[in-house]
Structure formats: structure tokens, C-alpha cells
Specification:
The chain is an alpha/beta fold. It has two domains: about 1-95, no CATH class; about 110-235, Protein-Tyrosine Phosphatase, Chain A (Alpha-Beta Complex). About 30% of the residues lie in helices and about 15% in strands. α3 (about 135-145) crosses α4 (about 175-185).
């Protein structure tokens, strides 16, 4: 059981994750959770669609706020929507939470991606500047994978930079030149995309290069930064 202190005086809720872990990999589903808020007599059972233990911390912050709204002396007689906060609305709110790209799981059968020549794997990479962690440390676990003997894998990579993050000027991308240098140090056999003169280091241009290379066969992996994934979703929404 894990408990969180509230930002203001008042009873603290607790959260229990009822999911089970195993050494074997399982495709992630929702996390069953039990929410105990002092305002309600019985626990609230909900399904959290976000993955990762840190999301339990985030849920703890949200339920602490809800608990304060329901029990703090200042808000009890001042918030007209208080009666609409019920176990069912809380459970529904937890279940409807979504965060595109954040630890989302997608199952793609390799049989649909490989051809007679093997598998073409292309990485589209962008990183946030976050010292002391360097690009080499971040990318090594991703690019140093063991190739299976039974299948030929051709690997290429496009190093780009995500677009400026609105309202967060302190978030800066790692220069693409540094990412390319790190990739060369990890595996000199990875084919790198070198943009033409005046060509932007963007998700759409990287995907165009990937399509021309793979011709509809292969696997594309966008990785390294949630802000890159955000660029990808914006591109899809166009």
C-alpha cells in the first residue's frame, strides 16, 4: 500500500495496485487499482489505462486533490460540484485517462514485416538535452540489440530534432549531429540518413526517407523523446 500526503491539511487517500508482475513479458493492459478515500466508506475499484509504477504516484496526487475537495473545511460549503464527485465518477475518470505515446504498447507480428531479404528496421530518433546523461548512454540499450541468426536485419537511423515545446522553453533537443556521432560509436554498420541541402530534420521528411528505403516492408521505430512522439502524432493529425 502506498500513501501520499496532501498539499493541504486533511485526510490522505491510499492506493493499492492489484496488478501482478512476472519475469515473463506480457503485453500491458489496464492496471486494476483500489482507491481508499476517507470521504467514502468503501474502496473505489478502478482501471488505470496508463502504465508504469510512476503513474500510481500521479494518480495519488490526483486523488489527494479530490480528497481535499471533499473533506477540507474551506471547500465543503463553497464548491457546488462536490455532490457530483462520487465513486462511479471517480472510477470513470480514471478509466478514461489517456496519454498518447506514454508507454503505449503495440503488437506487430514480424511475419507481416519481413520479406525474402529479411527485415528492414529503421529508427527515427530525437533526444531531449538532459545532462549528465549523454546520447551514447541513452541509445546504447536501444541500438546494441543482438541480431537473430535465423533472420537478416538491415538497420538504418534518422537523427532529427523535435520542434520547440510550447510553453516550455527550457526543453531543448540534442543536436542531430551529436545523435549521429553516438550512433556511429555504437554500431558503425547502421546506415544514417544524411539530409539533402535545405532539407529539414523533421518527422515527415524522415518518414519519407524511410518509406523510400523500405517500400512498404519493414518496421519503423520512433524513439528517444516523448516530444518526438508528439511531433509524430501532430503529423498524423494533419
Amino acid at each position: 500500500m502506498r500513501a501520499w500526503d496532501e498539499a493541504v491539511d486533511g485526510p490522505s487517500p491510499s492506493i493499492v495496485s492489484t496488478s501482478r508482475s512476472s519475469l515473463r513479458f506480457h503485453y500491458a493492459t489496464v492496471q486494476p487499482v483500489s482507491l481508499s478515500l476517507p470521504y467514502f466508506q468503501s474502496p473505489i475499484y478502478a482501471q488505470l489505462p496508463l502504465h508504469g509504477r510512476h503513474q500510481l504516484d500521479n494518480l495519488g496526487v490526483a486523488t489527494s486533490i479530490i480528497s481535499s475537495l471533499l473533506t477540507h473545511s474551506y471547500s465543503i460549503h463553497r464548491l457546488p460540484f462536490q455532490r457530483r464527485i462520487t465513486p462511479s465518477t471517480i472510477a470513470a475518470g480514471v478509466r478514461s485517462t489517456s496519454w498518447a505515446g506514454r508507454l503505449s504498447f503495440h503488437h506487430v507480428p514480424l511475419s507481416r514485416l519481413r520479406d525474402q531479404e529479411g527485415l528492414k528496421l529503421t529508427f527515427i530518433l530525437a533526444l531531449s538535452h538532459s545532462p549528465p546523461k549523454m546520447p551514447l548512454q541513452t541509445l546504447s540499450p536501444l541500438l546494441s540489440f543482438k541480431r537473430p541468426r535465423e533472420m537478416e536485419i538491415s538497420v538504418s537511423a534518422a537523427a532529427i530534432e523535435f520542434t520547440p515545446v510550447e510553453g516550455m522553453p527550457w526543453v531543448q533537443p540534442v543536436p542531430s549531429s551529436e545523435i549521429r556521432e553516438a550512433i556511429k560509436n555504437i554500431d558503425g554498420n547502421i546506415k544514417l540518413w544524411v539530409p539533402g541541402e535545405g532539407e529539414r530534420l523533421s518527422v515527415d521528411n524522415a518518414l519519407l526517407w524511410t518509406y523510400e528505403r523500405q517500400r512498404g516492408k519493414g518496421l519503423v521505430c520512433l524513439a528517444g523523446s516523448l516530444y518526438l512522439v508528439a511531433d509524430f502524432y501532430r503529423f498524423l493529425n494533419k
